[in-house]
Structure of MFS transporter:
Amino acid sequence: MLPSDPVTSSAPHDPYAALRLPDFRRLVSARTLLTVATRVQGLVVSWQIFKLTNNPLALGLIGLSEAVPSIVVSLYAGYVADSMRRKNIVVAAMAVLLLCAAALAGFASPYGIGFLAKDSLYTIPLYGVIFVSGIARGFMGPALFSFMPQLLPDRAFLPNAITWNSTTYQGSSVLGPAIGGYLIAHLGVANSYVVTTVLLGLALFQFARIAGRPLPPTEGERLNLKDSVLSGLRFIFSNQLVLAALSLDMFAVLFGGAVALLPVFAADILKVGPTGFGHLEAAPAVGSVLMAVFLTYFPLRRHAGRKLLWAVAGFGAATIGFALSKNFYLSLGLLFLTGVFDSVSVIVRSTLIHTFTPEYMKGRVSAVNNIFIGSSNEIGAFESGVAARLMGTVRSVVFGGVMTLLVVAVTAWRADKLRELEMGKNQPVA
């Protein structure tokens, strides 16, 4: 179990340190299968609903249907993650996601309600399944975030584990959309859902093989639900570095994400079909995984805060360029750059939270992080759908990119500690 205070190791940098731990490898493989499955499922659902409704707002409702339940349960889920064994929570949440995937496969099957696929009422059960999966995700996020450090023998492994966690997540995010586009084009919607069900079953099996860990010892008496939740919120809002990094990432994702509208760009603007749609979905993740691999060998050291601000600004600028592009390959390149810039933000933010948060509070703090970041993807998808409905697809994405640049400017002006952030050998230094 990790000590609550950061320590600095004088050992030579080993880029594979965390991967040498068997339980961490099991966690990474389970998370890879889970991510591939959910990315394939998300792509299939968005393609299916857009083809059914031909309405960008319907794509935004997908994100809203998942984000609302996730936000509602997040703070309680953080309390639960700090009150009971975290592995048990993750296994239960994965089981629910597995049932949701099986339900989508059943609905799409001609033996289920697939015969209603041309009726607008067919979207109601799809949104219902997404809603339930949002509840499961709300519980799994804090538990998985706080369980990962418990698999490490000491804090010296933490930066490397965070980077590999991000690398494998982004790598599986590359595979997911590419596989999803292929599956839609060659196997159809129903069989694509069957594939996601199998992948989630394998993820659940692999995670179950990880040895359970007891909860970290608490400092002082155990708090009741209300005081426990408030203590997590107070911790976030009393730490300028963590709050600034969370806010910067949240608003950038909220306003700057064009991913929710990719079906529109693929079908109506770039006219590249489901296979091209899969490539567009994968492009940001390709950029993210390559940058994450680079940072594994060359971790951020000097001027990390300034580099973070420039990276988020680059994300906004690339988003604007993508909105204005009419060329498929240029669009791929610009989406690739959004992933490169986003990877820097993800790794710096995760390092800050893991480093400054005591182990016994990580469930609650991660729950707030989930509200800030995890759900901002889905809320951002809804915002993108509404903005596209009101302003048109291209103008809405340009607007989002401009707002991202504005958020960076305000953060750079107000958050002096983030501007001055340096990364020590194993920890941030403000």
In short: The chain is about 75% helix and 0% strand. Residues 1-11 have pLDDT under 50 and may be disordered. The radius of gyration is 21 Å. The CA atoms of residues 266 and 276 lie 7 Å apart.
